[in-house]
């Protein structure tokens, strides 16, 4: 969720970025959405450690920050798909750099 005030110091931009994409799951969700559009259940299977409640909450926050698009299809039962917005896509390089750093850190 967007917040308009940050500490007025040199860390402001980093603080703003971490508030939007920080936490245990948001980066992982964004990473998966870099490659494809997914339904809720598909995302949940890719992240076995996340609860349904947490995934719902994180997706809503990412949607509220205009990083993720939630598309609902008029079907019975309704089909919902998640994809990156243009703003979310702008994080591609950052997310991939985090992936690469993690691979090195883990010795992969």
Describe what this molecule looks like in 3D.
With 108 residues, the chain is of the alpha+beta class. Helix content is 55%, strand content 13%. The protein is built from six helices and three strands; from the N terminus they run H-H-E-H-H-E-E-H-H. Strands 1-3-2 form a three-stranded antiparallel beta sheet. Helix 2 packs across helix 6. The radius of gyration is 15 Å and the shape is globular. This is Transcriptional regulator, HxlR family. Keywords: DNA-binding, Transcription, Transcription regulation. One of its GO terms (molecular function) is DNA binding. It comes from Desulfopila aestuarii DSM 18488.
Could you list some keywords that capture this structure?
6 helices, alpha+beta, three-stranded antiparallel sheet, Arc Repressor Mutant, subunit A
Helix share bin? 40-55%
Number of strands: 3
Distance between the termini: 34 Å
Strand order of the largest sheet: 1-3-2
Number of domains: 1
Major beta sheet summary: 3 strands, antiparallel
Please count the helical segments. 6
Order of helices and strands: HHEHHEEHH
Give the overall shape. Answer: globular
Q: What radius of gyration results from the CA coordinates?
A: 15 Å
CATH 2nd-level architecture: Orthogonal Bundle
Beta-sheet strand percentage?
A: 5-15%
InterPro entries: HTH_HxlR, WH-like_DNA-bd_sf, WH_DNA-bd_sf
Organism: Desulfopila aestuarii DSM 18488
Domain HTH hxlR-type: 12-108
Keywords: DNA-binding, Transcription, Transcription regulation
